[in-house]
């Protein structure tokens, strides 16, 4: 379990209407214990790949 002090808002604290990227970011931080930088880099890479394929 990642150190709770490293986490920002969790998915259940954000409204369900929050942008999907924000909720994915929360999940990466929580489930994988990613730092802010790691989660941001992962999201950018994933979204870039997704939009390039579209």
Q: From the structure provided, what is the oligomeric state, counting identical versus distinct chains?
A: single chain
Shape: flat
Order of helices and strands: HH
Low-pLDDT parts are: none
- The averaged pLDDT comes out at 79
Q: How many runs of DSSP E, i.e. beta strands?
A: 0
Structural features, described:
This protein is mainly α. The chain is built from 2 helices and no strands. The chain is 57% helix and 0% strand. The longest helix has 18 residues. It has one domain.
Provide a concise account of the structure shown.
This protein has 2 helices and no strands. With 54 residues, the protein is mostly helical.
Q: How is this fold's topology laid out?
A:
Layout: H1 20-32, H2 36-53
Helix pairs in contact: 1-2
Task: List descriptors.
single chain; 54 residues; mainly alpha; 2 helices; 57% helix; flat
